[in-house]
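User: I'm curious whether this sequence folds into something compact or stays loose and floppy. Could you predict its structure so I can see for myself?
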Amino acid sequence: MRRILLSIGLAGAVLFSGLPAGADAAPYIDYAPVKPPDNFIELRGAREQFRVPPLLVKACGDLPDNYGEDYPAHVLAQVTLLRMLDTNIGTGSIQRVMNGGDNGKPEPDRVVYPPLSSPANAAQCLRDLAPDWAEKWEGGPTTRRDAPGWKTVDDELSRVFELWGRPGTEMQELCHDGDWDLTISLVIRTWLLARYHYSEQDRARLDEKMSRVVWLQGGASQYDTVNCEIAGKDIPETENHNLLITSTRYLHNLWLPMLSPVTVQGATNKSVADYDVNFNPDNETNGLRARLTEQLDTWLRTDFLEYNSRIYARLDMIGLLNLYDLGDEALRPRVRAVLDLIAAKAATESMGELRNPTFRRRLENRGELLFDVDEVSPMMQVWVGDLAPVTRTGANFAEEGTLAASSKYRPPDALADLMLNPAHHSYLQAFNGRGQGELAFGAPGLTISGGGRSTPCAYGAIAGICFGSGNDPGHPERLLLIPRRVRGGQPDAKPVESWLLRSDYDGDTDCLGNGIACANKWVLGSYAPAASCRRAFDSRGDHVSALLFNRSCMDETWPRESCFYVYVRDLKAGSQIRPLSYLVVHTCEAGFDDFVAYMTDGPGQHGPWQNACAREHGKHPGGNCLGWKVSLTPPRVTGPLSPGDPVTLTARTSPGNLPYTISTTPVREASASGDVAAYANDRLRLANPAAGERLYDGPGGTSPESDRRGFTAVGNVTLAGEVSVALTGVTHPDLVRDVQSSYVDQTVVEQECTLTRPDGTRYCDETHGPPMLPLASWTYYYRGTPFESGQPVTYTEQRPIVHPDHTYLIRTCLTWWRFMTAQDYWSNQYGEKDPATEETCVNNLVSPR
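Assistant: Here's the prediction. I'll summarize afterward.
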């Protein structure tokens, strides 16, 4: 079992064991019923559906026979489903996932999504919670007040032991048992989310009960930060447990009755008196708010000590989401910024929720898996939609999905758009708060991530030994090129490193830049282009491999629109001390062989190699220079083959230097810097310039408000029946979806004008022109960023235009979608009340000649 509390701090009594008997045979989280969103607009409409699969897996399993974190997580899933069933959108989303559906398009574009297949008892489980779950929601916030599921929740919460357990990291061999803070942090979350449903009398009864279960209260004690003492040295509490302890105190003080000193001192569990030494419930004067503020600001400046932890990231998320959803406004902006930092890492370092970051804690969890290993990715599946190339997530990650599904937090649309829209997946991002050198590069259709630097054990060493549970050093990863893929093939085939193009070297490196990376050599995985899409030859003593990645070269899981080239060159420069190979990527605007020629013999070829001390090879005055380097100018990642940024790649074996470096790696002095996220002014900033901005398509290119950008539309009519309208005065055309209304009005302009213009003036006699010819209907959804000037948009009439002497009135209506931030989602979780779109129309007179 992944999360087992072996004991709880009373006399060392062993209480807990493995998975409960009779559990569903190999359940899994089934996302097959839900269509992966194509853009953040679709995501807004379907986001509730992505909450359902992990909730059903967690809620419909057997109730655990212990009170570890799995027990309250099970009840939390039940409460979240009941809350969904108290709303129209929640009820409809549960029904849609259970029954399956389609994409709403006619044949041949119709895609059918099957009913939920796991857990097998989902329908019965829902009937046990609310027998009328499959019926239409009739309105009102408590339509299912008498649902038996609420009585079940009451009974399950009432069973949890009072004044029990010891918080903190479990170190049974060296100090004492712990982990009770995991349980009670989920208990208080579950109760506070369920509390709204109960009567005032029942609420008061359960508040008293929960106060004795969640007994952490008041101000801090020394045990919040010091786990125990070994050899006269304090062993610090881990940051995730410290956050759980402090956040749970904070919420107890806000919501639950305080335990009296008599109750605390009289508890048979000594831990209660150890931890509850301050009885002041005011979080301002008892020091908790200041303590949490300092911790949150530290994470924003320097990242987590346990950055990207492969088993404990969920603990940080429990504490943060508790403060975000259930805390007060005094802390919420800072909590939101930290959550945005975590989401920015997940968005930039992944592709389709496959992720490969450098990490600290639990090095034994390092392996080949790229899915069902990172604990933030299952949360992003709920928040951004299931983007993985497989439809089944391990049931072991249902708790992470339940946490995300029970929260009001939503990543900013700027990050969701980055993950959903391949055209916007373009950045070079760094995170270096702990000196770990995290880097990620994104281009349409691919992410390159990994690398990083080794870091010392998180909580220090005693006599060179990293004492403490999970007091691990940080470890880099191989550089991986992770391509975008769509669903297909085996639904449970978990992606692994050996499928992908990857560096053979897995040590310290920061050799990753815009479209270029270097290592000792590159290994082509099993998910590779067909032989006809590869080139291999020698050039100037080097070995060259070139690869074309597109749908015809790959398989049905490759997106139809995704296409890029990869050029790998193994340098064979004399008596090099360390091997050096570089990889360059470019999207497919140019021809494949043209790209290969550009890199081999054209402007992209590398220059002569030098030693790393800039001395001519073979001349080493004053000793050897342990390293060598080459310079080149790869092409820009997208567009025509034109020179990009010059780079110098260096391979070293000298002590104190990174083995592989690149000259253009961005400055990484803060926790976040790069094209997506940056730390500035004591806060995390998403660098997308239009996050939260509403754009406006006003006539004449005018901007009616200072925070809006305008454009106008002009165009020409052709005798073939096409009306070509070009957007002008704007930058960056990002059409997310085709097709609202436009029409052509044919009129004769040679006669005296008697028809009415849109502004009310008359311009010709109605009898001199044929009736209005309606065009097909289009709606253009645009991303909230600038647009490129002059981008053509073509409307095509189904009938030929037969009056070449007429002038046509073109009415172009474009819909702009507002990017919402996490703050926007807090006030309007689903974007329903917010006028998230704005439609304005531009009128233009165009002539066919």
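Summary: Residues 521 and 581 are 5 Å apart (CA to CA). The mean pLDDT is 80.
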